[in-house]
Each structure stands twice: as structure tokens, then as C-alpha cells.
Amino acid sequence: MRLAAFTAGGRDAIGVVRDAAVVDLSADPSLPHTIEELLERGADALARAHAVAQTGEAIPLERVRLRAPVTSPRKFLAIAANYQSHIDEVLATNPNYIPPTDQRWFNKQVTSINGPYDAILMPPESNELDYEAELAIIIGRRCRRVPLEAAPSVIGGFTVCNDVSARDWQRRSPTIMLGKSFDTHGPLGPWLVTPDELGDPHDLEITCTVNGELRQRGSTAEMINNCYEQIVYLSTVFTLEPGDVLATGTPAGTGLARKPPRLLRAGDIVRCEIERIGAIQAVIQPESVSAQPWT
Fold first, then answer.
1. Which domain-ending residue is among 17, 40, 67?
2. What is the pLDDT of residues 199-209, one digit of tens each?
3. Distance (Å, whole) CA 83 – CA 97
4. Residue numbers of the domain that contains 23
5. Residues 194 and 53 in one domain
6. Cβ of 258: how many Cβ atoms within 10 Å?
7. Backbone φ, ψ for residue 161 (5° rounding)
8. Which of 67, 92, 118 lies at the terminal end of a domain, its last residue?
9. Cα separation of 196 and 143, whole Å?
10. For residue 274, what are the contacts with CB-CB under 8 A and spacing of at least 6?
11. Tens digit of pLDDT for each residue in 58-94?
């Protein structure tokens, strides 16, 4: 299934995408109103959602506003330097860079989550905004110390992520969290694709264009640590919960690593696409900062 969170007629709902339409799952009042809750309820709830999708009324996608498939996960984590091509391009611009020998994870604040087609805000405090097209895992069940052979079973689905990065703020923090967590800098979508529909997550083309110009093209087959190894590693330390987002790394072609750098500017249109999932797209918009000292 392709599970979507959407707004239609001023009402938030979740549904199953079928062709160019979405079936509203609120037709079954026993089903929850968020994808996180749907995943948490397990196989029975997913089966009911699938049944509703076969007979429910379909709303054309052009009549709804798609939202991020998960909006309030407990964790939004991302792995650094998980594609050799990206490591190589960083080394070409920074010979002093030391690639990780183990999985290196950082936190993206959940308030960075943005809709698949909503504007990405360029804060006035940064002038080094960059893009990173990534496959994101959405955890489907509560789990801890997951063995490798069981890792596929804890995945609720996959979606597209743009790990938007304020490179200047990234350099200011050894954990790089600050440069990864500005509001709107975690677009997700356009929907969640369940594992049974997606198939092998390690054989997907991943691309990013800026204003129609191809900037990134790679394959998830390039991952140094695959999706299942990432789950094993993280769950050794802490419990993963339904709705948690794990961004799995980006291939070469990032703006900062280009010669000269090709960073994002106001008005740019960034499109990230992954085979068998779909695409997210956003315009870069200057953030309007009020004269008020805080809001």
C-alpha cells in the first residue's frame, strides 16, 4: 500500500493512494487518524485499511494537500557518510575529513519535518543551504536489539526525504545536529510505501534536481550500511518505535561538494525522487522573521 496523510475540505485525514486518487480511511471509524497510530496498531489495522481501500470513495490527488506521512515521530535520525560516492566528494573538497569507521548517526529535530510540496525556508542566519536526497525508513513496530534476519519485519514503510542542510551551522556543532534541524528542513513524502509493495529497498534509483538540472543520481545499492544493518545498530542502543524516521544517507552530487559550490538560493526548485516511491518538490523561500524578539 501507499499510505498518505492529507488535508481535504479543511480536515486532516489519512488514506490509501490508488492510481491518481486517495481513499479516505475515515470511512472506517475504527481506524486511527494518523499513520503513526495505524502502524502502532499492527497487522489487523493495516488489513482493515487495505479492505477500505478496495471499496472506499477515492478523492483525486489534485483536490487534496498531501502532508508528511508522519508528522510527530518520537525520533528523526539520519546516518552520515553512508555512500562511498559522497565520502569521495567530501574528501575531494576537504582532504582532512576522516570518514567514519562505524555508523555515525545524528539527530534531526522532529520540528524540521515538512510536507512533500511545502516551501523550504531559508533562514536569514544561513547562506549555505544544501540538498541531500535520501531514502527514509519508517519504523512499523516497537523493537529493541533486533537481529539482522528480523530487521525487515520491523519496517512499516519507506518514503523520500530531503535532508536539507545548513552547512555553515553544521560546521558549528560537532554533532552536526544544528545544521540539520532548522524548521522545514526535513521534507518527507509524498507518502509511505509499505515493504510488500516496494520490494527490495536496496535497488532503487535516487535523484535530485535543482531547477530541472540533475544534481544527484545514485542507487540505494551503494549504501555502505544497508537498511537492515542500520536498524540492528540503532536498536542495540535504544528502542525504536512506530513512526520513527531513519534517513539512510545520500549519494554524490551535493551542492557544497561541487567545484565551485552550487548551494541553494531563494526561488530554487528542488525535486528529490526515488524509484517505486515517488517525488517530493519544494521551492526555496526566504524565511520572514518578525521584528518581535520571539514568537
1. 67
2. 999 999 999 99
3. 15
4. 2-67
5. no
6. 15
7. -130, 140
8. 67
9. 20
10. 133, 135, 158, 160, 204, 205, 206, 207, 220
11. 999 999 999 999 999 999 999 999 999 999 999 999 9
